[in-house]
Amino acid sequence: MVVTPESKYMSSQEYLDWEEQQPIKYEYINGEVFAMTGGTLPHNSIALNLASALKSHVRGNGCKVFMADAKLGVSEKGPFHYPDVTVTCDERDKNARKVIYHPCLIVEVLSPSTESFDSPTETLLERGKKFQQYRRISTLREYVLISAEQINVEVFRLNDRGIWELYTYMEGEEVYLSSVDFRCALELLYEDVVLESDEEETVGM
Predict the structure, then answer these.
(1) Rounded to two decimals, what is the model's pTM?
(2) DSSP codes of every residue in 40-105
(3) Each residue of 160-175: pLDDT tens digit?
(4) Which CATH superfamily is domain 38-204 in?
């Protein structure tokens, strides 16, 4: 995500009207717009694997699964983001055509190429800021970060006391998403994905 050189302050409605005329997607934060950069092939494969599995799992129960082209609004005034995978089971989103406002699950895939643009500290701060924004959504129950460098998944889950708890899943484990009562082997998310370590081994052969 990069800020546009010609950025100027926009109201949320100005942003929504303006972005419809643009050839690429833009996120909107505090009156500024940020161009969305493309992800890596592993990034795309991981998001597709999870979205496909979730789509099959929720079929027929009223929930809807969206991928990166679906705009998510924290509120009608923003911010507006494009998560890699979003699930909503809220009746208010049933007929939405442009923006999802009431998700129960948000997933971001962390690409090596994305993290290389910033220092590790800046990347962590950026993730924290986005999660801070997402926590304002009253229907959100889980926020998931999936690494595209190694087999690792972090799930932030809202407990019954209103506190966000962190659950970490690593290779060989089964990931559980309570917001949609979904379970799968972690390896399923990484099916047909070439990780950076795999590429290094291939080059070294």
Answers:
(1) 0.88
(2) PHHHHHHHHHHHHHHHHHHTTTT-EEEETTSEEESSTT--EE--SEEEE--GGGTT-SSEE---SE
(3) 999 999 999 999 999 9
(4) tt1808, chain A (3.90.1570.10)
